[in-house]
Amino acid sequence: MRSLLLSLALVASLSAQAARIPRDAVLYIEPTDFGQALAAAILKKQVPIRLTTDRAQASYVLASTSEVSKEGQGERVAKILVSGGLVGSGNSFQASVTITDLQSAVLFAYSSKKSNFQSAAEGVAKNLKKHIEGK
User: What would the 3-class secondary structure string for 73-128 be?
Assistant: First the structure.
């Protein structure tokens, strides 16, 4: 019985490892402001994937959510007191993405919190590239 459980665990582990987005897969990015920034970052970071604007031609779909938050007055005063001057822009940008296959299985998910839109998109693109390359 124990060897059966170990065999099942090994099969499950191998299945999880095989659930990667392959090189040159066709990806559709849901149209959002962050989606546009992410498409640019994917091209800039040379992620080995093909982008399409036609959902019907895609093998994978990327959905994203994003939010900008401004730091409060209290946080700003605390930073000035601690650092002795102004630090940062006072904004933070958070984005989360998921990539699913056509059967809605999630193959990639990542959250990025940066000081601006572009940095968050580039962080997601960098980690997507690592995922595809198996790093």
Answer: HHHHHHHHHHHCCCCCCCEEEEEEEEEEECCCCEEEEEEEEECCHHHHHHHHHHHH
In a domain, 8, yes or no: no
* Residue 32 neighbours by CB under 8 Å, 6+ apart: 64, 66
Total-model pTM? 0.73
Tell me the residue range of the domain where 52 lies: 22-133
Q: Which amino acid is at 68?
A: V
pLDDT of residue 113 exceeding 50, the answer is yes
Residue 15 lies in a domain: no
pLDDT tens string 38-97 = 999 999 999 999 999 999 999 999 999 988 877 555 655 555 566 555 555 567 889 999
| 57, part of any domain | yes
